[in-house]
Design a protein that fits this description.
With 127 residues, this protein is an alpha+beta fold. It has 2 domains: 1-58, 2,3-Dihydroxybiphenyl 1,2-Dioxygenase, domain 1, CATH 3.10.180.10; 73-127, 2,3-Dihydroxybiphenyl 1,2-Dioxygenase, domain 1 (Roll). The chain contains 2 helices and 9 strands. The strands form 2 sheets. Strands 1, 2, 3, 4 and 5 form a 5-stranded mixed beta sheet that branches. It has a 4-stranded mixed beta sheet with strand order 6-9-8-7. Strand 8 and strand 9 (121-126) form a beta hairpin.
Length: 127
């Protein structure tokens, strides 16, 4: 069994899609729109891994996102090298995204950085 896709509701569908394309090399489908509910979505592909479905509908709730909460904590993207991870972390920082941690080696042996991006959600870059 494999994870086929993960879904994420966002307020600004186009900005979220642009983030994943610009920084993480996502390939996007043309999108889907249900005119009855005004639900919209894109499926984003990242190489051979699971896809990410970005979704939006006008009647969503948007409670405050605390870093230490139940539920999904972050989406992790594996990069090919420390140099690539460090460069992307710096690029995201230079572009105004908050770096929560890293780059660093964690206690369980991962080399990673965590970035607060996409409407207050955490993106992890890891090896």
């Amino acid at each position: 069994m494999v994870i086929e896709h993960i879904a994420m509701y966002v307020n600004d569908l186009e900005a979220a899609r642009a983030f994943f394309i610009k920084y993480l090399g996502a390939k996007s489908n043309a999108g889907y729109h249900n005119p009855n509910t005004d639900f919209r979505s894109y499926f984003l592909a990242f190489g051979d891994g699971a896809r990410l479905e970005l979704m939006h509908r006008p009647d969503m709730e948007d409670p405050e996102k605390h870093l230490n909460r139940t539920g999904y904590a972050h989406i992790a993207f594996r990069l090919d090298s420390r140099e690539e991870l460090e460069k992307l972390t710096q690029r995201l920082s230079d572009d105004g995204y908050s770096i929560i941690s890293g780059p660093r080696t964690t206690g369980d042996g991962y080399y990673e950085s965590c970035i607060l991006a996409v409407e207050g959600n955490v993106i992890e870059l890891t090896l």
